[in-house]
Amino acid sequence: MARERQRRAAWKRHVTPARLGIYGFLIMAAVFFLLPLYVMIVTSLKPMSEIRLGDIFALPQTPSVEAWAIAWSSACTGLNCEGISVGFWNSMRIVVPSTVLSIFVGAVNGYALSFWRVKWAGALFGVLMLGTFVPYQVVIFPLVKALAALGLFGSLAGIVLIHTIFGMPVMTLLFRNYYASVPEELFKAARIDGGGFWRIFLQLMLPMSLPIIVVAVILQVTGIWNDFILGLVFAGRENLPMTVQLNNIINSTQGERAYNVNMAATILTSMVPLVIYLVSGRWFVRGIAAGAVKG
């Protein structure tokens, strides 16, 4: 009996109106954000005969992955009917080198600005930060002219260079703030041991940077993969990323619009960032807590 009274008292302490309100708000927010994903998934699994009924929330009566196969391998993106798989491999060829280069350059910049205090370091950092707030649309035309003069416009090297340049300010900010939280005594001890710029960076700082590298990879892969305008302008016809191919699939449909194929293609396009967030979300939080917002 006494144990029962204790259990009721504990339940009353935990179930308060404020806590019920918080849980209610969180459940409503989760439903609000997950409802579009639910509609996309069930629509992609329905045949067109069920979609025409107009009940977008109903579960598929005869679920099928045929729309997914069509979206991946045979959906038309303009005159070509090779599916969205072409865009997937183009995005992979753009994302991998762009992510590696932007992170490496940002790490070197952050390391130099934090420890070596190069001349005009403050002014240089301020200029780099201005680049964070410059909209793409403002600099597209000058960049088109510059890349055309270099012979890189409409090429894989050109779009990789563009993403590396646009990613450098944010990457520099992340690594500069992270290295600002590293004890300076470590750097001074390495200098006393005879370490130079690159040796200290490669053998001391870079191995200590794993948490912030994970954060940088998540940010860069997600941003570059979801990019549309830069890929459309600078990648060239042979290197169009997955987002541009998705737009072509949806807008080049003739006759009856295949909503199930469109939904499947949309989910396939967003699959890579979604998987990265689900797999590495824990490390993302650790990286942020390890110093991404310090400095």
What can you see in these coordinates?
- The protein has 295 residues and is mainly alpha-helical.
- It is built from 14 helices and no strands.
- The chain has helices spanning 2-14, 17-44, 48-51, 66-73, 85-116, 121-132, 136-150, 156-180, 184-192, 197-205, 210-226, 229-234, 242-251, 259-292.
- Helix 5 runs antiparallel to helix 13.
- The radius of gyration is 25 Å and the shape is flat.
- The protein starts with a helix and ends with a helix.
- The mean pLDDT is 86.
Question: How do you describe this structure in short?
Answer:
The protein is mainly alpha-helical and 295 residues long. The chain is 75% helix and 0% strand. It is built from 14 helices and no strands.
Give the helices and strands, then pairings.
Blueprint: H1 2-14, H2 17-44, H3 48-51, H4 66-73, H5 85-116, H6 121-132, H7 136-150, H8 156-180, H9 184-192, H10 197-205, H11 210-226, H12 229-234, H13 242-251, H14 259-292
Counting helices, strands and paired strands, the structural category is mainly alpha
Number of DSSP helical runs = 14
- The share of residues in helices is over 70%
Strand tally is 0
How large, in whole angstroms, is the Cα Rg? Answer: 25 Å
**Integer average pLDDT:** 86
Termini separation: 57 Å
Poorly predicted ranges = none
- H/E element string? HHHHHHHHHHHHHH
For the sheet with most strands, the description reads:
none
* Percent range for β-strand residues: under 5%
Rough outline: flat
